[in-house]
C-alpha cells in the first residue's frame, strides 16, 4: 500500500486551523470560569473572616468544608460517570448511598468489628446491585425515551428507601467508631473518621480516574460515552460496558455511604439529601465530566461551610444553591466545560 | 462469502428493504449504488447487526449472522464504516485506532497500527490530536483506518464521499481499491455512482429497497438506464 501524498498536502493546514481555533476558544472560555470560581471561594473566605472576626472559625470552616467535599466528589463522580456513559439521570444515587450506610451498620453490628471492614463489602455489594439493576431493568430501556429511565430510577429510589424502612425500621441507627479522636490540622480540628473519609474518598476517586484513563476497559467506557454506535462497530459489547459502568457508579455511592457512616445518623432516607448535593456537583463539574466532578465536590464542600459562616443563621446549603443557580444561569455547561468523561 | 438472502427490514412501520438479495465474493470490491432512500444504508445496518431484519437471512461463509449483535459481527471479521463515521470525538487519533483493534490481541494491534499509518500517513502525524478537531477528509481516513485495525475480511464503507471534495473522494475510493488489493473484500455503498462503478469489480443498483440491476462495474457504467438515472448522461 502506498502513501497518498496529495491528501497529505491538501489537509494539514485545514486541520491545523481547526485545532488552533479549538484551543484558543478553550483558553478564552475555559480558564475564566475556573478563575472566577476560585475568586469566589477567596471572597467567601474573606466574608467568613469578616463576619466571624476569627481566623480559628474560618480555618475550621475551610477544613470541614474540604473534608466534606472529598466525599461529595466520590459520590458525584459515580453519578457523572453514569450520566456521561449511559445518558441516565440517576435519581436513585442517594438511595444507593443509603444502602451503603446500612451495609456498614449491618456488617459492624454483626461482626462487632471496626466499621471500616465494611468498605470492601459496600463497594462490591453496591457494584453487584448496580450491575444487576442495569442488566435486568435499564438495559431493556435502551433506545427508549429518557423519561422512562428517569422514572425507573426515581421509582427505585422510593423502593430502596422503603425496603430499608421495612428491614431496619425508622429509628435512627449508628455505626460509630469506638474511639474517634480529634485530629489537628493547621490549628483546626476534625474527627479522625472524617479525615479517613476524606483520604479514602480521594484515593478511590483517583483509582476510578486511573481505571477510566489508563486501562483498556476504561478506554472502552470512554468510547461508549463518545459514540455508542461507533463502540458497537469496533466490536465493544456496549451492553456489558453499560452494566459495568452503572455498577462502578453505584459502587462510588456505596463507598461514600460507608465512609460517612461513622459520623452520620443512619435512617432509610438519609441518602436523599446527598442526591441533591451530588446533582449540584455534577452540573457544576460539567455533565458527564468525571474529573470535573472530583474538583467540584471539593468546591461545594467549601462553599457549604464558608457560606454557613459568612451568612450565619441559615442552612449551610443556601450558599451552595445560590452558587448552583448562578452556574445554571451563567454557565450551564458547568465550570469545567464540555461533556467529556 | 457474504450472502444476503431475501432481506426485508425497516424502521418502525416504515419498511425500507423488500426482498433484497446479493452476494460479495472473496477479494471482491462490490459497489452498491442507488438514489436516496433506496435502502443502501439500511442494507449495511442489517449486515452489521445495528438493526434487525424482519425476514430473510444474512450468511457469512455459510454461517447465519442475522440476529447477532454488532460486536459479535465484528468478531466474524465484518466491519462497517458508517456514513457519519461514529468516531470517538474527544479521544486522540491513536486511541481511536487502538479501540479499532478491540477484538484482537494487543501484539497484533501494534503491527496493524503501522500498516494503517502507512496507508494514511496523515494519521501518524496527528496521532495525538483529538479526532473531532480534524477535517472531514482526515476523519474519513481515521474511520477507515479504525475499521482496518480489526483486520476485517470484509470492509463495508457507507457513503465515504459524504462531505468530501471530489479530489478527496477519489483518494478515499483509491484507498478502497488498495484495501481490496491487500486481500480484504470491500462492500462500497455510494451515491456518487460514476466513481463507485468505475472502481468496482461488480455492482448492484438498488431501487425502492430491492436490487434492480446487477453486473460488472464497467457493464453497469455503460448501461443506458444507469446512465440516465444515476450518471446524469
UniProtKB/TrEMBL annotation, chain B:
Record SUPFAM superfamilies: P-loop containing nucleoside triphosphate hydrolases
CDD domains per record: ABC_TM1139_LivF_branched
GO molecular function, one term: ATP hydrolysis activity
Signal peptide bounds: none
Residue ranges annotated for the ABC transporter domain, each copy included: 2-233
One Pfam family this sequence matches: ABC_tran
Keywords: Amino-acid transport, ATP-binding, Nucleotide-binding, Transport
GO biological process terms on file: L-amino acid transport
Gene3D superfamilies linked: P-loop containing nucleotide triphosphate hydrolases
UniProt similarity note: Belongs to the ABC transporter superfamily.
Protein name as annotated: ABC transporter ATP-binding protein
Organism expressing this protein natively: Streptomyces brasiliensis
